[in-house]
Amino acid sequence: MTRLSRRTYLTLLTGLWASALFWPYPEAGGIVHAPILALTPLWLALTDIIPGHAWKKRVAQATVLYGELVIGWGHAASPGHLLHDIGRALKDLESLQVTQWQHLNAHLAVPLLLGGGWLIWLVTRSASTPSQRFLLWIIGLGVIVLNHLLWGLAGVGPFTAFAILGLLDMGYRHLSTLRLEDGGESPRWPLWLEMAGVSIFTVSLATGVTLPTRHFTLRWQWFNRLTPSIPGPAATAVTGLSLSDTNITRSVAPQATPVLLIHSPAPAYWQDGVYTTFNGLSWSNPAGSPTTTLPKSLWTSNFGRGVVSTVWHVGVTGLTPTPLEHLVYTGDPVTFSVLTTINPNNETVVSLPTKHYQLVTEVPRYSADQLAIAQIGSVPRSLAPDLAVPGSLSPRVKQLALTVTHGAVSPWQAALLIKAYLDQHYRYSYSVTPSQENAVNHFLFGDRRGYCDQFSTTFVMMMRLLGVPARWVVGYTPGVYDPSQKGYLIRAEDAHAWAQIWLGSLGWVAFDPTPGFAGPVQIVHTPPNTAAIGSTSGVIPLNRTHPTPAPSSKALPVHPVPLPSPRTATPKTPPHHDRYFAARPIGAQWILFGLGLAGLFAGWQIRRRSASAMAQLWQQILKGTPRYLGHSVQGFTPQGWGRAWLRYFPDDADIVLAVVKTFNAGFYGLHGLSETDIDAVSSRWRELRRRHR
């Protein structure tokens, strides 16, 4: 008969307690397999119960830390590489204000986070007296609150877990001391309660069910009251539309919150604001006087008289608890169903709070010939702000723009060449390395990665340097069609930034330079497809749910490092006061550990099968595409495949965009694709083949 020792139980409880304090840091960093890294103190606790000499424990701890580094990076690293990246990370932190540390590159942050997890474990383990444990409990709660206020890290989940686990730890130690003084035995906990808790915890971790520690809406009133009372900067940027925050130097985290349901004849880009002035870090507009109501004469048309347009009747419904005040639109609005206030400087439309509005708008439709040959001619004096660039912009940017567009005979051709260059030499990533220098300089010649804000801003600056007026636009991409609601469901992660360029007689023409996007321009000979394209709820739209790492590194699953097993030597019969379990069959603790390993293995198998099915489907599409395009697309990314297909079959934009979005979410997202997503992509691929038999 054997029972789990009191020391082992307290060691594991301390590991969980320390993990609750450490958890918010990896979860906020955009790190792959963040739940595994977030439990660093617990894995170290498992090594601490290994019997034998201390050197065995130190070797096991080093193995765990290195294994987690491999998981976080997706590859092994030499000591020289590790030291180099730690040096880079410390240098970046030194150059940043403390309140901007959350913008540190995720790759560089991994070794620092693991070191922090190790230190948290050491401090928590070394607190042995009741007064030390209580002081640690108070300090830990304060640190969690401070993390939330300074960097926008998760608060309620870790706060609750740390508070409860700390009380359990201190309570158990106190009761154990009292009973031992009375000659009794340590407190006992039901075996079924332990087994249930460990099983739920490990299975949730293995299958990717994130514990409640990500970005959230605070629900506790006292926490809500506390937050604004302590000064601090804005939280970590998340995807979503904000006209008041146009800083493009920070990393973002995706949010899938539904925000709008739009009933329109076809998918479209939905504009919310336009910006003209860039200072090297953020966008702004000169102040102006708003105009109430919307007579047609007060709205300056964005496109010229020679452009064909169609009239759309659109319905927009807000899906958030907060009513709509900023009204999105496409094309040139004619009328709104609610009283509106127009700001002509940034072309925003504001109304009294409403949950629904209708819109009549004229949507321009260009011909390919119009765009290809359009010239800007004489630029009106009023467009001078749309040619301005900040003084901090490097001369190398203009040199690069001239080199990339060499041979272009029109602004539109120059725009296409710049987009092609950005597609080929820069990658889409949520995580950007923080810098205080001009964001365009840093993107082009330093970081070489970013999301829509960096791509579109760089495009605007390069076009301006070529003498083409350009401006920055924010709004939403089309979203995903929802057959059940017969409309386009737009989420916070669909928030997007693109550009408009001035093409003389054609006026302002929208252009999207970000990789993987079909673009907002309607072409005359490819009328919008009003047929609804079905989609499952599991499909994640493309724009801000894309990749944090390089495509090649995320297309393959990363196998979790096996956890060190707590080896329990066959002991001599210990004193009864060093045990807390009642007598039970031999191996009860191994049942608990086995359940945990089974949960991890099950989750790994689920993810591996999902990744395998996704990879097989992608290879099937790549092998089948040459039959229709006449050339190989092996090695293409989803964005590259989509662009290649649309060059030959532009009418397929709706289906191709959905396929690209889904594969990007699978290859570069954190959780792969579900079977429903894979079935949906298979159905779309069959539809594409059926169309072109």
Automatic annotation (TrEMBL):
Residues 546-575 are annotated as: Disordered. The chain crosses the membrane at residues 104-123, 135-168, 189-211, 586-604. Keywords: Membrane, Transmembrane, Transmembrane helix. It holds the Pfam family Transglut_core. InterPro entries: Bact_TGase-like (IPR052901), Papain-like_cys_pep_sf (IPR038765), Transglutaminase-like (IPR002931). SMART domains: TGc. Residues 444-515 form the Transglutaminase-like domain. This is Transglutaminase domain-containing protein. It comes from Sulfobacillus acidophilus (strain ATCC 700253 / DSM 10332 / NAL).
